[in-house]
Design goal:
The chain is an alpha/beta fold. The chain is built from eight helices and nine strands. It has helices at 14-30, 48-55, 60-63, 87-94, 115-130, 185-188, 204-212, 245-248; strands at residues 7-11, 38-42, 69-73, 75-77, 140-143, 168-171, 180-183, 193-198, 230-236. A six-stranded parallel β-sheet has the order 1-9-8-5-2-3. The chain binds 6-phosphogluconic acid. Residues 43-47, 74-75, 87, 144-146, 150-153 line the site of 6-phosphogluconic acid.
């Protein structure tokens, strides 16, 4: 299967990766249509944490027109919003608490209500915000991937990957850990821009399979490609260790 067009950027380490990602986020928001809402869906995990901290610090805290930004999440764990495993809590600690934002700009997934209820509530919020006539189109979605190739809370081999209608699904992970709520592929692939962040050697196999081999069926992360949007893979040298010079030249 041919690899779909995308941008690939490889950085010396996670710090350079996070700073470059902050620059890209800043430019996307700054250059978006003035006066128009800018919608972003965040992921959790360890990879984006430094990025969120950089965005919540000078100069980005003061430079980015945050008052236009509406924050959503690509997925969430079914835990209280102040729980250490909450993706909302991580973003609040690192970024949101440092910004002055109207409450109605934060659209968290109410994981504490349980996966089925939280998914229904979040889907209703997306429909209310984006309208019922078309699939929500986020201006930006930040995604990571696990070393099993999952992204958001879409895990390999699960029925959620076949969903074509629902915007949001409850997830009962086969592994241990809390239930989750996730955006579905139709929503993710309707984004205007997706930034995939991957750092660390444990991600090199997935990155190689997807980025260089163009394998878009083996992993959920490989199934991500905006239909009418841009995809930017930003990886550090460890995660990109097995990429050939050819792949790295795709920029
Ligand atoms: C989550 C994330 C998830 C994450 C990957 C990578 O809620 O767990 O949204 O999809 O992006 O698991 O996590 P790391 O960045 O910690 O490797």
């Amino acid at each position: 299967m041919t690899a779909a067009a995308f941008d690939l950027r490889v950085f010396p380490g996670p710090e350079a990766l996070s700073h470059a990602a902050a620059d890209l986020v800043n430019s996307l928001v700054y250059n978006s249509q003035p006066g128009k809402k800018f919608t972003v869906a965040l992921s959790g995990g360890s990879t984006p944490r430094p990025l969120y901290s950089i965005l919540g610090s000078s100069p980005y805290r003061d430079a980015v027109p945050w008052q236009r930004v509406h924050f959503f999440w690509a997925d969430e764990r079914c835990v209280p919003p102040d729980h250490s495993e909450s993706n909302y809590n991580m973003a609040r600690e690192t970024l949101l608490s440092r910004l002055t934002l109207p409450e109605d700009h934060i659209h968290r997934i109410r994981g504490e209500a349980g996966a089925v209820t939280a998914a229904a509530l979040y889907e209703k919020e997306l429909i209310n915000f984006f309208g019922a006539d078309e699939t929500p189109r986020f201006d930006l979605i930040l995604l990571g991937t696990g070393n099993d190739g999952h992204t958001a809370s879409l895990f390999p081999g699960t029925a959620a990957l076949e969903e074509k209608v629902r915007l949001v699904l409850p997830v009962h992970p086969e592994s241990t850990g809390p239930d989750r709520v996730t955006l579905t592929l139709p929503v993710l692939n309707n984004a205007a821009h997706i930034i995939f962040l991957a750092a660390g050697s444990e991600k090199s196999g997935v990155v190689y399979d997807i980025v260089e081999q163009g394998n878009r069926k083996k992993y959920p992360a490989g199934m991500i490609h905006p239909i009418h949007g841009r995809l930017t893979w930003m990886v550090d040298r460890e995660a990109g260790a097995t990429l050939s010079r050819f792949a790295v030249s795709i920029r």
